[in-house]
Write a structure and sequence with these properties.
Blueprint: E1 14-16, E2 22-24, H1 29-40, E3 46-50, E4 71-73, H2 74-82, H3 94-98, E5 103-107, E6 116-119, E7 137-142, H4 152-162, E8 169-172, E9 176-181, H5 187-194, E10 201-202, E11 205-206, H6 212-227, E12 232-233, E13 236-239, H7 250-261, E14 267-269, E15 273-276, E16 282-286, E17 303-308, E18 311-315, H8 321-330, E19 340-342, H9 354-360, E20 364-367, H10 380-389, E21 392-395, H11 396-399, E22 401-407, E23 410-416
Parallel strand pairs: 3-5, 4-6, 10-12, 11-13, 13-14, 18-19, 19-20, 20-21
Antiparallel strand pairs: 1-2, 5-6, 7-9, 8-9, 15-16, 16-17, 17-18, 22-23
Amino acid sequence: MHPNADIYITQGFICRNAYGEIDNLQRGGSDYTASLIGAAVNASEIQIWTDIDGMHDNDPRIVDKTSPVRPLHFEEAAELAYFGAKILHPTCVQPAKYANIPVRLLNTMEPTAPGTLISNDTEKGKIKAVAAKDNITAIKIKSSRMLLAHGFLRKGFEIFESYQTSIDMICTSEVGVSVSIDNTKHLNEILDDLKKYGVTTIDYMIASHPHSDHIGGLVDVLEDAAVSSDLTVSMVLLPEVPDKDVPTTRVYEAFLDGIEDNHIDPTFVSEKQTLNLGGSTTLELIAPPAGKTYSSLNDYSMAAYLNCGGKTFLFTGDAEKNEEADWLENGVFDGMHADVFKAGHHGSRTSSSEALLEQIQPTYAVISCGTDNSYGHPHEEALDRLDVYCDKVYRTDLDGTVICKVEDGELKWSFDKEYAS
């Protein structure tokens, strides 16, 4: 067609690596070279000739009567190539894609066939092909530490990154994530590193009170434990609520169903109860004041006082001033000091009263609240009170995930600000 055209012939496999050594581009090397040269000379079209008429809508080695797919987007072609279409290496046409130069796959045995044209043009609403990938390995990571934990997936994926192992597909739930990989060179090392995130037994599941934002995630854990041999919930503790105030929400009903499905006899805490967590670490559960009734379900919150490594932590759930006042009147906080106070009800003005703060004398406070939440938490009134007593107030909306550890008798703070605004 062009008798006077200049023709340049070159090889496509030999190269130099990052160390300047002569090397081999391996599979797809000639296609990659063609794509590079085509992009460099700003060709109108790059043609790759093979022994098949373009990319097919299924694997012709497995399925009879497959048909060529005529138009494909670069990303569609890369997906098909990665998941089974051997005609093309997934990355070999990247230079052409960036230069917006179409690539045509043609058949040497049938040169008049139109083949497949790969370009940046898209066709919406069509299923063009199905691909299958052999020899993949599925890894399922199940851990209650995932529950509402910002950054869990990132930390898990960093393990794969450290071993230069790519993840093909991902499926997640509240307490688990499944991934597939095709490179098993470092599989044993990856599994060993992932095990530190695994939890097989929950000794104590503690629900502060029956509001959905405090028990909703526990429902997922209970449902998972009920159908899995990999996770066991040993004990569920929750505050005793008067019959007339027991909620009938779908979340609370699902919570109770989950307890029943795990064949657990729930423990309704009606007075102080101390849990020994190992060594000198104890967690004292403080029940709602006996004989009292409240207009708000928040005031049936159960508090918890943790003594760990000589440092103390107080959690009061969503308890408001009425319940706090009754606790103080009953003397349940007598002699207590909180190095760290988890502010009540997400920093609401109706909690963390001056009387409570005067009693526990907190050194630090932590407020758990969502960024730009519709309730306006934390409220200025609560912040002002906390600032009087605390050396520092940490907030999840500003500081992200707040992590406090006790090491050698000292508090060590760290933060994951990825989810803070």
